[in-house]
């Protein structure tokens, strides 16, 4: 197996274990390509998104607008299959391509003689046929110019992203070092040629390349990165979103993501299986991080993915929090504010630093102590603090603090830079406490 973890467009770590080829003793390396099965559907979807971004098609148009000889009998009414429905597994098409189909012309002729299993736009119904049509039709009928699915993926995705261990061309020595697929009993699995159905599951890749692909998609949703000029930002952002939510509240479907809720996050993920090989691509746009794993043997990739993210996410988010301290903490310059303040000698206030909470504490005449945290990064105003309720306070003090709400404390500096005064306009309006010590 091989796994890669990415963050903000880079690769954090690559893990490898075991053999790419047991007979030769060749071990899996960081760049070893594996067959990725249905993860190929992500590449097919990206081709459709690029064609839509270029104005060649519209996602909500019936496929027949761009491909007039596409038709299928709809026993549920007059609805027509759209490009978006193909990507979302909601076309209603049968799962597999008609037997013996070897070309797009043959597929269109055969599909025209079949009927939909579900109404277009209804509940998801997994269809390899739908993605075979999407990838082949975009390449051959929409873009044309002699393109095939393989050549268009090369030109529109692999080359722009520099995916050096990804492709769809097989032959003697191609790709070099391809991990041998193995059956559950350890015997090599025969090579499985998908032929015309290739856009649904025929490609190979490495986890690092898959992480780079996921990173480029997340960047495109922000109008950034190597795909930003190829996929419109609104389309790339919609590509991250669920298209259908299951009643269980945990699993959702996208284009063609098989999503799952993990704690506070929604994992966008796609698994792939082809005899003897398994692959998974998964990512969390909100954290700008991705995980991809490949195996040359049958695995339950989704159970493993749930376990892997369950172990990874808590520590990862803790690490991010440590790298980016809370903007509500005063930091190492708390001494700038500590001292005695007075209003005309009639009313005194002190500001101390409480090590236990890591906060400043403002006390007026010793009557009430108010915990305050640096809110400058939030408000955009320097030397601004906000009252808050720390955990573990006795009820009476909690009640006092609750009474003043989220009051602001403003510190002012003189020309030389030191803090010279403090005002609390909402708590003691009009009073300016000059710093004494």
Describe the model:
This protein has 437 residues and is of the alpha+beta class. The chain folds into two domains: 2-323, DD-peptidase/beta-lactamase superfamily (Beta-lactamase, 3-Layer(aba) Sandwich); 331-435, Beta Barrel (Lipocalin), CATH 2.40.128. Helices cover 27% and strands 23% of the residues. Strand 13 and strand 14 form a beta hairpin. Helix 1 runs parallel beside helix 5. The termini are far apart.
Sequence-ordered SSE layout with sheet pairings:
Layout: E1 2-7, E2 10-16, E3 19-21, E4 26-27, E5 34-35, H1 40-53, H2 63-66, H3 83-87, H4 104-111, H5 128-143, H6 149-161, E6 204-205, H7 207-220, H8 233-239, E7 244-245, E8 251-253, E9 258-262, E10 265-274, E11 277-284, E12 289-295, H9 301-323, E13 339-343, E14 347-354, E15 359-364, E16 368-374, H10 376-379, E17 384-387, H11 395-404, E18 408-413, E19 419-423, E20 432-435
Antiparallel strand pairs: 1-2, 1-12, 3-4, 5-6, 7-8, 8-9, 9-10, 10-11, 11-12, 13-14, 13-20, 14-15, 15-16, 16-17, 17-18, 18-19, 19-20
Helix pairs in contact: 1-5, 1-6
Protein name: Beta-lactamase-related domain-containing protein
Domain Beta-lactamase-related: 3-302
Family: Belongs to the beta-lactamase family.
């Amino acid at each position: 197996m091989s796994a890669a973890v990415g963050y903000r467009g880079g690769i954090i770590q690559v893990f490898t274990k075991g053999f790419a080829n047991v007979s030769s003793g060749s071990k899996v390396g960081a760049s070893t390509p594996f067959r990725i099965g249905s993860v190929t559907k992500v590449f097919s979807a990206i081709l459709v998104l690029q064609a839509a971004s270029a104005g060649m098609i519209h996602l909500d148009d019936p496929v027949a607008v761009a491909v007039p000889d596409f038709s299928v009998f709809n026993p549920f009414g007059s609805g027509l299959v759209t490009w978006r429905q193909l990507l979302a597994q909601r076309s209603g098409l049968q799962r597999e391509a008609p037997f013996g189909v070897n070309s797009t012309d043959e597929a269109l002729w055969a599909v025209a003689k079949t009927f939909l299993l579900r109404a277009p736009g209804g509940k998801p119904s997994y269809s390899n046929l739908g993605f075979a049509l999407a990838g082949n039709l975009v390449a051959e009928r929409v873009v044309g110019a002699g393109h095939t699915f393989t050549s268009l993926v090369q030109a529109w995705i692999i080359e722009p992203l520099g995916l050096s261990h990804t492709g769809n061309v097989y032959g003697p020595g191609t790709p070099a070092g391809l991990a041998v697929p193995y059956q559950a009993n350890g015997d090599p699995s025969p090579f499985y040629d998908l032929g015309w159905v290739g856009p649904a599951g025929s490609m190979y890749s490495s986890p690092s390349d898959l992480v780079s692909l996921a990173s480029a998609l997340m960047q495109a949703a922000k109008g950034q990165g190597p795909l930003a000029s190829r996929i419109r930002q609104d389309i790339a952002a919609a590509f991250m979103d669920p298209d259908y939510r299951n009643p269980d509240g945990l699993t959702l479907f996208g284009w063609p993501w098989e999503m799952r809720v993990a704690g506070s996050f929604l994992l966008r993920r796609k698994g792939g299986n082809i005899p003897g090989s398994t692959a998974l691509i998964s990512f969390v746009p909100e954290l700008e991080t991705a995980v991809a794993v490949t195996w040359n043997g049958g695995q339950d990739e989704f159970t493993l993915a749930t376990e892997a993210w369950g172990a990874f996410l808590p520590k990862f988010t803790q690490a991010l929090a440590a790298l980016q301290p809370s903007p509500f903490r005063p930091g190492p310059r708390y001494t700038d504010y500590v001292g005695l303040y007075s209003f005309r000698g009639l009313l005194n206030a002190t500001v101390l630093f409480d090590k236990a909470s890591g906060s400043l504490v403002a006390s007026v005449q010793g009557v009430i102590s108010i915990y305050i945290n640096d809110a400058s990064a939030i408000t955009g105003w320097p030397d601004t603090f906000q009252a808050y309720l720390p955990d573990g306070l006795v009820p009476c003090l909690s009640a006092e603090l609750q009474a003043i709400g989220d009051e602001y404390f403003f510190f002012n500096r003189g020309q030389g830079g030191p803090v010279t005064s403090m005002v609390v306009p909402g708590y003691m309006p009009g009073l300016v406490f000059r710093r004494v010590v």
